Structures are given as structure tokens and as C-alpha cells.
């Protein structure tokens, strides 16, 4: 069976009129009717009830419409994938990421993309969230992934995945003996924080303020790696992305403590130029690669980045 009758049939159903379908497909009305008649003869069943004043599908037509739509969608998908084989994506791509994403997620994302598009030259940059946002605004980066809230009307901002924030403490810390803590337990503690401009720092500052926590002392470090090492060494407690301490938690080098009544999450965001009409094929391909990743794929990528 050739595919054209399927497309004609689906177009008739969606336009609710054979004449409108003929116009859309640049066919004559008799040609459309002839194709549908041939299709019905091949199937041995009427698809359209011609006795009704309005277009009505028979029971066979209802069934066939569902399958015809699926067949046409698969055909279009196959054409796109075949087209990608012949249209090789090339060019330069400048990708940025904030530290948490850049150190633990971006390498696997880039590796998968590079395997699919080997002719794209990729440069990566890792900095804190505010620095990455500025680099995108100034066109130093084509596209980037950042953590925390982004409030800039002059760039594209799209949520790409959810990240869980957890409280981690040294194994010998008094809080480590508790199965669950409240905001009262967190009063007068020593906190390990990221530097200003970091998405994780903004998240921690916001929660400490919202919970009315009195902080005894803070130590500030410029990367997630340094923060978790400081906590492991017994310097203080910290709020961190779960993805950066998976290895240490499994090795029991530090402990995660539940906070009563709270599951802390934030979004990771894809940012770039608002003018996506002029984006290069390399940028468009990278965006499609990101959006094709389901939630389970993101989790697997995070695990790869942690060498678990």
C-alpha cells in the first residue's frame, strides 16, 4: 500500500470535508474521492459514512484513523532521522555551566552529543551562576546550563531538570545522631557556604533567612568539591545538591540528615539567546539533544558523572 491514501484519509478527517482536504493537498476533488474508494476496497470496509450530511466516520474509519495517524508520524520521524544522516551538523559550539552542573553533569551530556555530532567543535566554560548568565548576555557563550533562579528578561530561560538539595553533616557531628531535624536543631551552627553569585549560595541564603536561623559562623568556598571536603573534615554543615555527594554518602564519609516536613528542590535551567531563529545548526542540535533527555536519562547522566 502506498502512503498517499493514508495522508489523504487523515487530512479529510481533520478538515471534516473532502473538498477542503483536496485544496490542502493540491488535488482535485475526484482524485481524493477515488483514493478513498481505492483504500476502502483494499480494506474491504467503508471508512466514511456518505449518507450523513456531515462527515462521519464508520466504526472501521475510527479504528483506521488512529493507526493511520501513527503510521504517518513514524514515517515523518524516519524521514527526519534519514535527513540528519545526510545533513551533517558542523560548526563551533560554546557551552557553559554553573559549577554543580559543569562538574557533575555536563561532561556526560557533552560526551553523548559529541558522539552523535563528531564534526561540531565544542568549547566549555564552568563558572558560578551569575558569571555564566553574564557570559550568555554578552554572547561569550552560545548556550548554558545553570542552577538556581534566573531573572533576566533579555535571555531565553527554560527549566531542564529538577535537582534535590540535602543537608549534609560530618559523621562526628551531634546532628549526625538524629534521624530527622527541625529548624530549631539548625540554630547556632557553623555553616559551609559557596561564594556569592553561586546558585547554591543563593538557595542556602534564602532558606536560612526563611527559617529564621541564627548562624554562629560561616566558611565560604568557591566550589562544591571544596564544600563537601570541608564538611567531611568536620568544619561545619552545608546544604548541597544530592548529585555532588552521592559517592561520599555511599562511602559513609559524611551523613545526610532529613529536615522535618521538607523536601528541598530547585530547577536547573537552560539559557541562551532569545533569538533562536538565527541560532546555528550546532546550537539547535544541542538544544534538541537536551530536550530529548527524559528525567530518567538525566539521573543516569548524573550517576555517570559521579563514576558510580
Automatic annotation (TrEMBL):
<dbReference type="GO" id="GO:0003700">
    <property type="term" value="F:DNA-binding transcription factor activity"/>
</dbReference>
<dbReference type="Pfam" id="PF00126">
    <property type="entry name" value="HTH_1"/>
</dbReference>
<keyword id="KW-0805">Transcription regulation</keyword>
<dbReference type="GO" id="GO:0000976">
    <property type="term" value="F:transcription cis-regulatory region binding"/>
</dbReference>
<dbReference type="InterPro" id="IPR036388">
    <property type="entry name" value="WH-like_DNA-bd_sf"/>
</dbReference>
<protein>
    <submittedName>
        <fullName>Transcriptional regulator</fullName>
    </submittedName>
</protein>
<dbReference type="InterPro" id="IPR005119">
    <property type="entry name" value="LysR_subst-bd"/>
</dbReference>
<keyword id="KW-0238">DNA-binding</keyword>
<keyword id="KW-0804">Transcription</keyword>
<dbReference type="InterPro" id="IPR000847">
    <property type="entry name" value="LysR_HTH_N"/>
</dbReference>
<comment type="similarity">
    <text>Belongs to the LysR transcriptional regulatory family.</text>
</comment>
<dbReference type="Pfam" id="PF03466">
    <property type="entry name" value="LysR_substrate"/>
</dbReference>
<feature type="domain" description="HTH lysR-type">
    <location>
        <begin position="1"/>
        <end position="58"/>
    </location>
</feature>
<dbReference type="InterPro" id="IPR036390">
    <property type="entry name" value="WH_DNA-bd_sf"/>
</dbReference>
Amino acid at each position: 500500500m502506498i502512503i498517499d491514501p493514508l495522508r489523504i484519509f487523515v487530512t479529510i478527517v481533520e478538515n471534516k470535508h473532502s473538498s477542503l482536504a483536496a485544496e490542502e493537498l493540491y488535488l482535485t476533488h475526484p482524485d481524493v474521492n477515488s483514493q478513498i474508494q481505492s483504500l476502502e476496497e483494499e480494506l474491504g470496509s467503508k471508512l466514511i459514512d456518505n449518507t450523513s450530511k456531515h462527515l462521519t466516520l464508520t466504526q472501521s474509519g475510527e479504528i483506521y484513523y488512529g493507526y493511520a495517524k501513527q503510521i504517518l508520524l513514524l514515517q515523518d520521524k524516519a524521514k527526519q532521522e534519514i535527513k540528519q544522516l545526510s545533513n551533517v551538523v558542523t560548526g563551533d559550539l560554546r557551552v557553559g555551566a554553573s559549577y554543580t552542573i559543569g562538574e557533575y553533569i555536563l561532561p556526560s551530556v557533552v560526551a553523548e552529543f559529541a558522539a552523535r555530532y563528531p564534526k561540531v567543535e565544542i568549547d566549555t566554560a564552568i563558572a558560578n551562576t551569575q558569571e555564566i548568565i553574564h557570559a550568555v548576555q554578552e554572547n561569550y557563550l552560545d548556550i548554558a546550563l545553570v542552577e538556581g533562579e534566573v531573572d533576566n528578561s533579555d535571555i531565553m530561560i527554560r527549566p531542564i531538570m529538577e535537582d534535590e538539595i540535602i543537608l549534609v553533616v560530618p559523621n562526628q557531628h551531634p546532628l549526625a545522631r538524629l534521624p530527622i531535624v527541625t529548624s530549631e536543631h539548625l540554630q547556632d551552627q557553623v555553616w559551609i557556604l559557596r561564594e556569592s553569585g553561586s546558585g547554591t549560595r543563593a538557595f542556602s541564603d534564602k532558606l536560612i533567612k526563611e527559617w529564621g536561623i541564627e548562624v554562629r559562623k560561616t566558611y565560604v568556598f568557591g566550589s562544591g568539591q571544596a564544600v563537601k571536603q570541608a564538611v567531611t573534615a568536620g568544619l561545619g554543615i552545608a546544604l548541597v545538591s544530592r548529585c555532588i555527594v552521592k559517592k561520599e554518602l555511599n562511602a559513609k564519609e559524611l551523613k545526610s540528615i532529613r529536615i522535618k516536613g521538607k523536601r528541598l528542590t530547585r530547577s536547573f535551567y537552560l539559557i541562551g539567546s532569545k533569538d533562536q531563529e538565527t541560532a546555528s545548526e550546532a546550537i539547535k542540535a544541542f538544544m534538541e539533544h537536551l530536550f530529548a533527555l527524559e528525567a530518567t536519562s538525566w539521573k543516569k547522566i548524573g550517576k555517570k558523572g559521579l563514576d558510580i
